[in-house]
């Protein structure tokens, strides 16, 4: 946690963007899911 916070302060100070990836289950990319509006 401390290392991530330190890197966020560093990025903010130098004007770097922060990109976050969150691994969560999402919508399926198949035809049936498209039909039901998922």
UniProtKB/TrEMBL annotation:
The keyword Nucleus belongs to this UniProt entry's keyword annotation: no
Protein keywords: ATP-binding, Fatty acid biosynthesis, Fatty acid metabolism, Lipid biosynthesis, Lipid metabolism, Nucleotide-binding, Transferase
Entry protein name: acetyl-CoA carboxytransferase
Pathway field: Lipid metabolism; malonyl-CoA biosynthesis; malonyl-CoA from acetyl-CoA: step 1/1
GO cellular component, one term: acetyl-CoA carboxylase complex
Gene3D superfamilies, sorted: 2-enoyl-CoA Hydratase, Chain A, domain 1
EC class: transferase
Domain of life from the UniProt record: Eukaryota
Natural source organism: Nymphaea colorata
InterPro entries registered for this protein in UniProt: Acetyl_CoA_COase_a_su, ClpP/crotonase-like_dom_sf, COA_CT_C
Record bears the keyword Lipid metabolism: yes
Catalysed reaction equations from the record: N(6)-carboxybiotinyl-L-lysyl-[protein] + acetyl-CoA = N(6)-biotinyl-L-lysyl-[protein] + malonyl-CoA
The enzyme's E.C. designation: 2.1.3.15
GO biological process per UniProt: fatty acid biosynthetic process; malonyl-CoA biosynthetic process
Annotated CoA carboxyltransferase C-terminal domain residues: 1-38
GO MF annotations, alphabetized: acetyl-CoA carboxylase activity; ATP binding; carboxyl- or carbamoyltransferase activity
């Amino acid at each position: 946690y401390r290392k991530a916070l330190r890197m966020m302060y560093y990025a903010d100070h130098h004007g770097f963007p922060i990109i976050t990836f969150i691994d969560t289950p999402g919508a399926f990319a198949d035809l049936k899911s498209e039909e039901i509006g998922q």
